[in-house]
Amino acid sequence: xxxxxxxxxxxxxxxxxxxxxxxPFTDHAALAAKGVRVIARAExxxxxxxxxxxxxxGMSGLWCVNAGxxxxxxxxxxxxxxxxxxxYNTFFQTTTEPPVRLAQRLTALAPPVRGQPFTHVFFTxxxxxxxxxxxxxxxxxxxxxxxxxxxxxxSRCNAYHGSTVAAASLGGMSGMHxxxxxxxxxxxxxxQPYYWGLREPGETPEAFGLRxxxxxxxxxxxxxxxxxxxxxxxxxxxAGGVIIPPPTYWPEVQRIVQRxxxxxxxxxxxxxxxxxxxxxxxxKFGIQPDLVTFAKAVTSGYVPLGGVLVHERVARxxxxxxxxTHGYTYSGHPVACAVALANLDLMQREALPERVRHxxxxxxxxxxxxxxxxxxxxxxxxCGFVAGLVLTRDKATLAPFxxxxxxxxxxxxxxxxxxxxxxxxxxxxxIAPPLTMTRADINTMIERIVRALDATWADLQQRxxx
Length: 466
Hints:
Elements: H1 7-20, H2 28-34, E1 39-43, E2 46-49, E3 54-56, H3 60-63, H4 72-84, H5 97-109, E4 118-124, H6 127-144, E5 152-156, H7 165-170, H8 174-177, E6 187-190, H9 195-198, H10 205-223, E7 228-233, H11 249-260, E8 263-267, H12 281-285, E9 291-294, E10 306-311, H13 312-320, H14 334-349, H15 352-369, E11 377-383, E12 386-391, H16 407-417, E13 423-425, E14 428-431, H17 439-464
Parallel strand pairs: 5-6, 5-7, 7-8, 8-9
Antiparallel strand pairs: 1-2, 2-3, 4-10, 9-10, 11-12, 12-14, 13-14
Helix pairs in contact: 4-14, 5-14, 10-11, 15-17, 16-17
């Protein structure tokens, strides 16, 4: 499709979209009134829409295009696999080569914990399905150990673990819980480790990290340790606004789960495959999980694929426990797994996690911190290739803007107008760019973000007299 503006195509697709397509997390009446943006093509870190705009994709699609767009080796892997074997299932005592190879590859990439490896993988098509699988896995595990009363899974407020019924229940998004009578029974939540929003006067990040972790222990004791099956958490909360916990948080959480013998699920749908500078984020934070949820960047988003890495401690019990009555038609889809193998080859060849850890990640942190000088910005934070900033009307107190002003959405629009994609989460603006970015690309992104912040600030002054 051409990069040139195509007004006729844009009008046609907007009309058809409004008439037929239901979008995720969308007010469809408002969207139809405004009209969708139609993305036509992409290359590297750039996307083009049918109106001819060239936009720097600061969100890697949806946290997933880690290897960047236009990687022909990934398309070739899908093409070759489709010619040879486009589909077969892993039911009925059968398998195919790509999921076998990929399971072995992932268990080899995952660092051991407690001196033992991750030995098995359960494949799904998405992170939501993978977290649904985790609910089944942990409850089956405790049943096999003769502790069927261990059913409760603890999660965190403002966490995102997917949008199926079980995954949305695991998540702590109040807006999702309000639709569909969620959460389902057996899932409870504690507060998130958000220092800037929940700290007490004079409290240091280190002290807050310990206090936030102990909310988990308080909840375990409230429920009764003998009833708690697992704690699930993202190493860095993504969709919740890039919430980076203080350094004291994860070591204390690890102590608590070990003390009470509770399974730990590290949801790395966003954080794995180099996003934080490591193949898996649990290595960065010193977490010792029993289950690791993955999806998105395992294929760099080119083909849907997700799954669960299962540690030897859990896998041994499941394997010896007889039939596990759970699965999906596309568990271990050969095309998706073939693309994932090619994607891992590419990421290893180009040392993308190492680049983020040692070069581009520290440089992004340095440049991102300069945004705190802007009159609209109260806080800047980054970790690897995720970063967030807080929009505030008072830099000293971090006072928020009135919700009715919709400052985040206003800034997001100015970002698009300035040629860069950022995501608004309330009054936090976040990025998660492709790992292939260079230092020059980072400079370009920061320049465009500053332009968007300037436009937002001028807009607020004009509208509200700031």
